[in-house]
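Case study 2.
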Amino acid sequence: MSEVIDAGFPKKVTMPFTCLLKSGQVSEEYIQAVLDAGKLDPSISGDPTRLLAFLSGLIAMQANGIPVIDAISMARRQKRRLNILWSPRRWREEHDLMARYETMARLSAENVAYDLSAFLPHLPARFPGYIIRTSRRLGMEGLRQRHCVASYHSRIRDGKCAIASVFVDKVRWTVEILPTGNPDSPLTIGMIRSRFNQRPSQGIIRRIYEILGLETDAGNGLSNSTLEDNVYRYMQNLQRVLPVLRALDIESVEVCFDGSGDSGSIDGVYFQPEPDEQVMVEIVRRQRHFDHQQRRWIVTENSVNLALSEAIEEIAYDWLEETGVDWYNGEGGYGEMMIDVGDGQVTMEVNQRMIETSTEVYRTVDIETGEDIE
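Prediction:
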């Protein structure tokens, strides 16, 4: 361990870690994680003494079930940058993102063929796109689209769904196809996502149904509005927060965010004027999942008590998710959410930095025959 401590950091930085390790107050696993994080955070080079403060935060987050050490380990393997100032929520999100990436990479290295005999007879022989037939192609789809489709591996293998990649106006959409149990309309569509989990418009949904020759009223309780209903209605929580802001005589709230290069976060929640006390507020979290036995979406809600600034930050993240705008990958984006407390209004703006690309050619060709394969 001494070689790891000495590598790449000045003695004044490593000395406290050496003392903590020798005294047995902190385990080698924690110190290794902190030092690894220091090498993956570009900002540390300017002030490596921040690592000692991060150790305290790491211990607290791990104690609260935030898998920070695992996230650092995966970031090291994947050669990803990180930021030791991430919030607990961001650490959990980054952990889940990297875990999905490793799952997709593993599937890409495999070649498990799926039995799609229950789906293929009810789908067009040719359409702009293809049905995913192997775990390798499924992993490649997730890596290409940067979403969690690889988590569907076991369900595809068990015949509970199929996945298609469908092109609409040169945009690739990953489409979940579900059996309905209705012989007259045997298949319907579940989730539809594009790159970075972008959600489709109602027009795109209708186009995909038409391309795949499926009916939108397959008798399973799913409608276009149900399929793409917002995961969470952030306005309801803004209505809960507004009276609290007024009771504290706060005039306005500004939430700023910025991101790029696979990294981004809310920079801060700024009150005008700052409240004199820390106030808790109750908001509602809504989650949904598709019940494959009942063939319908199940929505659950639970109330949570958060500090006012944390509640507003969560509302802002929920709003950003609903916009479907990728503001943290690649060129990223930036923006703000402004709450005018007196007028009871909220103004939201998200700007995306983007280098535009489009799929101009897409072909799969049999090498021996030279024929196109759909």
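Confidence is low (pLDDT under 50) at residues 217-232.
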